[in-house]
Amino acid sequence: MTELNIMSNVCFGENSLDALRRYNNKNIIIYTDPFLAENHKVDAVLSKLEGNNCFVYSNIAPDPSIEQVGACYKFAKEHDADVFIAFGGGSAIDTAKAVIYVDADVNPGKKIELVAIPTTSGTGSEATDFSVISDKENGVKYPIVDKKMAPDLAVLCAEFTVSVPPAVTAATGMDVITHLLEAYVSTGSNIITDSLAEKGLVLAFDNLYKAYKDGGDLSARENMLMASYIAGLAFNNAGLGITHSIAHGLGANFHISHGTANAMVLPYVIAFNSCLDVPFGMDKSVAAQKYAIAYNKIGYESLGTRLSVMSFIKKINEMLRLMKLPTTLVELGVSREAFEKAKPVIVKSALADVCTTSNPRVPKEKDIENILDRLFSGM
Ligand SMILES: NC(=O)c1ccc[n+]([C@@H]2O[C@H](COP(=O)([O-])OP(=O)(O)OC[C@H]3O[C@@H](n4cnc5c(N)ncnc54)[C@H](O)[C@@H]3O)[C@@H](O)[C@H]2O)c1
Ligand SMILES: [Fe+2]
User: Fold this and answer.
1) DSSP 3-state assignment of 200?
2) Is residue 273 domain-shared with residue 132, that is, in the same domain?
3) Contact 257, 62 (CB under 8 A)
4) Is residue 1, in this structure, part of any structural domain at all?
5) C-alpha to C-alpha distance for 297 and 313, rounded to whole angstroms
6) Which residue did the predictor score with more confidence, 28 or 285?
7) Which atom of ligand 1 is the closest one to the Cα of 91?
């Protein structure tokens, strides 16, 4: 039996923010980051919430830590929250989700509603019951998965994403592409998640570079926001893979943004999953065949499995270069010493990461090490 978990409500298109008018006489907390608060973006959200008691927590920092979740939980208790509005990128949404997770444990009687308004087109967190929390002390990022954290409502409003700078557009957009490709080849994929992934890939490959080149291109922004949501739906059901497992360790140890880390690792994982390192391995690799289908779906001529997979890897590397994303750890200033020290920690956490369980090829310690070694200097 395959059970699909489709999230509840999503509003998109013109006037989607009006969906917030459904609340009246509630204690509402808006979790957001300093950029969105200082640039008055949050005012557009507040303007739809007349008749409620609203409290803005504007201190959300990237890569939510256990300490940040604790501070946000305290704020929620102080204001007896009924509703959370997570207004921001994955960091704001994941923080609000983690607070709900904690609250459900401490306070099982009362369910705080969660509205997610993503302002980056990246994590798809508005469509998932995943939250990624960092244990900064031990250099580990933990994905928590629990249905209690699923947003009750997602509001997709592309206007908010127009101000995302090119470097963040590139990184978060590569996170979308990674979600779609990992969900597509995952052992948990099925006909519905494949349909979502295929549509999402077409949208993302057609629009990411446009949004990067011209942040004001609203049509490209709308399509990326939709691709991000669709990707969330796909991976929430199909699962992810070792690009994410390795990226979590890189992010926790070297403070590389989530999307950048995924972008750097993705080409190596496509090669690994396709068994490029195993003589005649590709012929038996279902993942290789699916990458080849995906390459064809995004508009390239079918070249047979081997050539399609290799061209796809080349295409992704070309995108990274065009959008000025790093491709090696050396480029990011990571020293050999720091790398060798963190490597065993990253390998261990990657093998234990929940995302590894749905990777199409089961990795051994040595496989993760090989990927990391090549990522260090590109050799
Ligand atoms: N829950 C999930 O399913 C899931 C999936 C993937 C990643 N994640 C997690 O999400 C986090 C990353 O989220 P993210 O990539 O969206 O980044 P983010 O939320 O950390 O934001 C990145 C930067 O972009 C800025 N920003 C956000 N919106 C903006 C806007 N509209 N205009 C200008 N600047 C804006 C923020 O201020 C911040 O500096 C990581 O912790 C990652 O591990 C979660
Ligand atoms: Fe991700």
Assistant:
1) helix
2) no
3) yes
4) no
5) 15
6) 28
7) 19
In a domain, 133, yes or no: yes
Answer whether 182 contacts ligand 1 (Cβ < 6 A).
Answer: no
pLDDT value of residue 143: 83
pLDDT of residue 7: 67
Task: Share the mean pLDDT of the chain.
Answer: 95
pTM over 0.85: yes
Say if 86 falls within a structural domain. yes
Number of folded domains that form the chain: 2
* 29 C-beta closer than 6 A to ligand 1: no
229 neighbors 196 (Cβ within 8 angstroms): no
Are 112 and 103 in contact, with CB atoms under 8 Å apart?
yes
Q: Are both 311 and 226 inside the same structural domain?
A: yes
Q: Among residues 140, 162, 184, which one ends one of the domains?
A: 162
Instruction: Confirm if 126 and 93 have CB atoms less than 8 A apart.
Output: yes
CB distance 166 to ligand 1 below 6 Å: no
pLDDT tens digits along 195-240: 999 999 999 999 999 999 999 999 999 999 999 999 999 999 999 9
Ligand 2 geometric centre to CA of 358 (Å): 14
Give the ligand whose atoms come closest to the C-alpha of residue 175: 2
Residues 213 and 77 reside in one and the same domain: no
- Of all protein residues, the one whose alpha carbon is nearest to atom 19 of ligand 1 is 89
Domain of 80? Answer: 9-162
Q: Among 4-13, 64-73, 98-107, 358-367, which stretch is predicted with the lowest mean pLDDT?
A: 4-13
CA of 68 to the centre of ligand 1 (A): 15
